[in-house]
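Translate sequence into structure tokens.
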Amino acid sequence: MSPPNSLLLILITLLPQLLSLHIEASIEEPDNVQTLNTNPNTKKFNPKIPPLKKTLSSSKRFEGSSDFVNLKYHMGPVLSSPINIYLIWYGNWKQPQKLLIKDFLLSISTTNRRASPAPSVSDWWRTVSLYTDQTGANISRTVSIAGEYNDLRYSHGTHLTRLSVQQVIATAVKTKPFPVDHRNGIYLILTADDVTMEDFCRAVCGFHYFTFPSMVGYTLPYAWVGNSGKQCPEVCAYPFAVPGYMGGGGPGKLSPPNGDVGVDGMVSVIGHELAELSSNPLVNAWYAGEDPTAPTEIGDLCEGLYGTGGGGGYIGEVMKDKEGRTFNVNGRRGRRFLLQWIWSPVLKACAGPNALD
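Result follows.
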């Protein structure tokens, strides 16, 4: 047999093995294509997790762009000056939990992004900063923690209501750890995992409003978010926890980026509320719908979406590290977070810094 024929026979013999190697390489290739960052210890995935049977605002969810979203500006103020956050830690908080939340808040501002590679928390806030007031002033991209108050004695009990939470703010203001910051201030009340709140777990994971002069003495924008770790993680820390009815063959919970289901879940809710509070602080600025007492705001429109390809049970394309922890943005000091996307007034769609298109 001539040498060319011998070579042909060898190639025919090896062809099935070569095809097998090509197929295996093709299966693995997506992890190395169009990556969100250059860290070899992370990879992308788009987990499918069926939505909760009773979502907190299922009627408000719009997956992807929509011409039916009638988001309007109602001529009220937005937080266009540098934003000062006044933290009220209500109940007993562990120091690592407090540091985790503060690292997230300090990752928002462009002045605190030194160690935050893209996609970053600061990049995520850029979508929020696209909203303007009637003068054309954008929401500020400068966010700082201006003060902290520890209410270790549960001064208003272990069960709060939408009214009594304002008394918590009044206590902090009247004892003068905090100034009355009308122009730049956000008062953020964070309750520990043993504190219950009116409608918590059933209808809300967090909310924002403004204080009544009759309760606090001033009109101040505020937000409340609770730690659901012991009460309803399957609702308010989802998808880091899943309901019992999803067990047995259903999708598994995602691993939280910082190892704390309750607090990692809180971070996304805090981001949601801060975005809405900044764009609608007195409930007369940016929202959809005709009822200002129940507005559909810029976070509501994208609830449950964290990346490209979200919708239909998929949360969108996010990343996981070599330990399997799920995230979509980077923060200061090497922190990682999973933040829901925000409605963009420019794209008229949900948007985030980890988008692939």
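Note: The chain has seven helices and 16 strands.
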